[in-house]
Design a protein that fits this description.
With about 350 residues, the protein is of the alpha/beta class. About 45% of the residues lie in helices and about 15% in strands. Helix 2 crosses helix 11. The N terminus is likely disordered.
């Protein structure tokens, strides 16, 4: 009888141990899972190229991650997907971390891909007005990738810079790729804030197209923002995710930095050869030309320069809501997860 009772107790303890171990493993799998989804603010745009190229080069797999890329067409949509929980990480612009904190939510970037914005305000070839400044666009229809996107904010900044209110023009969502080119060629909008390779495509088709303000170069950024650097595309997630999944974020950062280094040591043609044909498009030479011009905008080490982050905050503070928010800049990014230099 005693022997039977002992066996029963032993079996109970054994089952309890198995359940405890299973529970522990389940929790670990949840926090250290190798599977994750990255929402991209427009895969066809060169500003987000490193996110896709890392997958093409096999660098996510090399660090033990199974990454699914979800093309969400616009930075604001990618941000919404992150906050809604449908993606784990977003490939978007750094300024969203500041804008979101001003609204009471905390997101944090952990690797920087782009050191210049890579966008431009382009005049439609169908616009017949004499336009030489943003003031001349009062009452016009201006295309942006989507409401609340970085292109939309840039437009608002230019309007305020020119002494105009945000509603002085009509903001039109036109996307970032072929739809943006079509909107410009057809005269659906009078001007648009565009991103390469769409800018290069439009210029090829309509050589007389005028670029009013160009943030694809350090000189252009200096002219508009008064600084030669303005950190743009990054990987970011909610601060809680970055904290709970630091090991995964560290692996992602390592894959992106390795990709940035690969970009720096290879030609535009070699980079284009690695990209999906659907993103390169029918005119490979045009893509290579646009990519060659974009190469200097990519970061070399993935670091967020503190002075660059400060400049972004300074510019974004032109929005009264952000100016009043008492932003904790240190909470909007971290360089601690980057690989050693």
């Amino acid at each position: 009888m005693k022997h039977k009772l002992w066996r029963t107790r032993a079996l109970i303890f054994l089952l309890a141990g198995v359940l405890l171990a299973t529970s522990a493993c389940g929790g670990s799998a949840k926090s250290d899972s190798s599977k994750l989804t990255i929402g991209v603010g427009g895969q066809s745009s060169l500003v987000y190229l490193p996110t896709t190229l890392a997958a093409q080069l096999g660098y996510y797999q090399q660090v033990g991650l199974e990454v699914t890329l979800q093309d969400l067409q616009a930075g604001s949509k990618a941000l919404t997907a992150l906050l809604g929980g449908s993606v784990d990480v977003t490939s978007g612009y750094y300024d969203h971390t500041i804008q979101t904190q001003a609204k009471g939510k905390s997101i944090e970037s952990f690797v920087t891909m782009l050191k210049l914005p890579g966008i431009a305000l382009v005049i439609s070839p169908q616009e017949h007005k004499q336009i030489s400044s943003i003031s001349d666009l009062k009452g016009a229809k201006i295309g942006v990738t989507a409401p609340g996107s970085s292109t939309d904010f840039f437009l608002n900044y230019l309007l305020k810079w020119a002494g105009l209110s945000a509603d002085a023009v009509s903001h039109q969502a036109i996307g970032s790729g072929s739809t943006a080119v079509a909107a410009m060629e057809q005269g659906t909008v009078d001007a648009a804030v565009m991103i390469d390779p769409a800018i290069s495509e439009l210029l090829k088709r309509q050589p007389d197209t005028k670029i009013l303000y160009d943030l694809r170069t350090a000189d252009g950024v200096q002219k508009i923002y008064g600084t030669p650097q303005y950190p743009a595309a990054v990987l970011y997630s909610t601060s809680s995710w970055v904290k709970e999944h630091a090991a995964i974020a560290k692996k992602l950062a390592a894959a992106i930095v390795k990709t940035l280094q690969w970009i720096n040591t290879h030609s535009a043609a070699e980079i284009a050869a690695k990209m999906p044909a659907s993103l390169v498009g029918a005119d490979k030479n045009l893509y290579i030309k646009a990519l060659s011009a974009a190469k200097p905008t990519y970061s070399l080490d993935g670091k967020m320069p503190p002075e660059g982050a400060s400049e972004v905050l300074k510019v974004l503070s032109s929005d009264p809501a952000i100016a009043k928010a008492n932003i904790n800049l240190a909470a909007t990014y971290t360089n601690s997860l980057l690989p050693p230099s």
